[in-house]
Amino acid sequence: MTLQNRSWAEPYKIKMVEPLKMTTESERQAAIVEAGYNTFLLPSEDVYIDLLTDSGCGAMSDRQWAGMMAGDEAYAGSANFYKMRDAVEEYYSYKYTVPTHQGRGAENILSQILIADGNYVPGNMYFTTTRLHQELAGATFVDVIVDEAHDPASDYPFKGNVDIAKLEALAKEVGADKIPYVCIATCVNMAGGQPISMANLKEVRAWCDANNVLLVHDMTRVAENAFFIQQREDGYRDKSIREIVYELCDLTDAATMSSKKDALVNIGGFLAMNDDSIYEKACNLVVVYEGLHTYGGMAGRDMEALAIGITESVQDDHISARVGQVEYLGNKLKMMGVPIVNPIGGHAVFLDARAILPHIPQDQFPAQALAAALYVDAGVRVMERGAVSAGRSKETGENFMPKLELVRLTLPRRVYTQAHMDVVAESVERVMKQASEIKGLKFTYEPEYLRFFRGKFEPVEG
Ligand SMILES: *Cc1c(COP(=O)(O)O)cnc(C)c1O
Fold first, then answer.
1. How far is the CA of 35 from the centre of ligand 1 (A)?
2. CA angle 292-297-299, nearest 5°?
3. 293 lines ligand 1 (CB under 6 A)
């Protein structure tokens, strides 16, 4: 294998810099103990390279910053809202847009509108906030993703695909009338940033039509998914990212969006749909939880930046550099012999913590321990995606033990350089060489909801 050093050279240049604080290993050791071995609880000041998430931490363009100055901060009917709404319709196909403060605001409203107590919501793997809002609205989430998604060694090119047989089996078991909608994420975060194919989405669409079930799109990473379709799926090589994004959206009935990811802004989101009765209900609820239906928790300037971010996010040059940087880091780690999830995802590289720390049982949270060790080594902040994130069963109170016990190295958009990626890879290699010294962890504090955000840990001794 050779490194494709030039494949992703950035289609932009740096206009402003943010100096970073350099820390020593003993400072970092003290900081991680203080943070209860949870990288979410580290002050960002103490972080050198922040790969915690790609959410809201991307760099905006000069055009977006210029747009911030054109904010119309009227309470009602802001000009920026109409511009954002028009961009959603032009690029994403959906007729109606309801702004929300971020993705989970949209999930809350949509779940309340569509879900009745005792319903089932199938999806191509869960996402933390999405599943929680479905559960709070009375539904049970059912994973219908293909088996390959759960196998970190599988090279299957579309690990975000739905196994239609699983969907069929669920409908047989509970009745299609208990399924208000199928929830499809593009570029499935929890599977490692893995795409769904257009062909599979068309099959899901057909199944939904045949069973009178709606199709909802978690479109947080739709542009990254479109890139993989362009690269891997027959018939799409000559289509633009913009065209593929539109086609994906157009196959679905409604969408929730965290614009803090693909859409290149620091805050915001929306709910979008084609059905006017769902829109009417969403307008009723958004005033309860978010704000008026023409701002929904967003400032006018933020809606302006989002409208511009949407147009930038579907540029072929942008997305090939974005995913190319992730591939650069992933390929470098592979060449060093680090076990990672295959194929390399669209927004992140996922380390297989079970393979790196075979001496730590899963109920001692190997991925959490590995994330903490990586911070101490070089100040690189990453996060756990394994048993801690998976939480506990609503029924039994037992810890879920997901097949994937991963550490996620997530790249913010347009923020770091290739040299930063080299530092990260070298740190992972160093930590792997000292893996046997890393200890498992146990909770000292466990929050009730989404425990990975604020949970605290200490090492298991002995
Ligand atoms: C981030 C994310 C969300 C939630 O969005 P927020 O803006 O963080 O509330 C939902 N789904 C997926 C796939 C995400 O990555």
1. 24
2. 100
3. no
What is the CATH code of the structural domain delimited by 25-54+316-459?
Answer: 3.90.1150.10
pTM: 0.93
Task: Assess whether 385 carries a catalytic annotation.
Answer: yes
Q: Which two tokens stand for residue 15?
A: 């206009």
Q: Please state, for a pLDDT cut of 70, what percent of the chain lies above it.
A: 98
CB of 189 shorter than 6 A to ligand 1: yes
Which residues are within 8 A (CB) of 192 and not within 5 positions of it... i.e. 6 or more apart? 152, 159, 341, 345, 348, 350, 404, 406
Closest C-alpha among 285, 288, 286, 220 to residue 255: 220
CA dihedral 332, 335, 337, 342 (to 10 degrees): 70
Give dist(CA 230, CA 322) in Å, integer.
Answer: 14
Distance CA 56, CA 74 (A): 24
**With respect to CATH, is domain 62-313 assigned 3.40.640.10?**
yes
Round to whole Å and give the CA distance between 174 and 190.
Answer: 26
Give the residues of the chain that fall short of pLDDT 50: 1-3
Residue with tokens 């709910």: 271
Residue 7, pLDDT score: 52
Q: Which residues contact 113 (CB under 8 A, 6 or more apart)?
A: 278, 281, 282, 285
Q: Name the residue of 127, 190, 408 to mutate for ligand 1: max ligand atoms within 8 A of Cβ.
A: 127
Give the alpha-carbon dihedral of 330, 336, 342, 346, to 10 degrees: 0
Bridge partners (DSSP) of residue 226 are: none
Ligand 1 touching residue 148 (CB < 6 A): no
- Give helix 128-136 / helix 103-114 axis angle, nearest 10°: 30
pLDDT at 258: 98
- Mind listing the pLDDT tens digit for each residue in 221-257? 999 999 999 999 999 999 999 999 999 999 999 999 9
| CA 12 to chain CA centroid, nearest Å | 24
- The verdict on whether 452 is a catalytic residue reads yes
Q: Assess whether the C-beta atom of 103 lies below 6 angstroms from ligand 1.
A: yes
DSSP character at residue 8:
T
The alpha carbons of the chain give a radius of gyration, in whole angstroms, of: 21
Query: Is 97 touching ligand 1 by the criterion CB < 6 Å?
Result: no
**Ligand 1 centre from 208 Cα, in Å?**
24
β-bridge partners, 227:
none
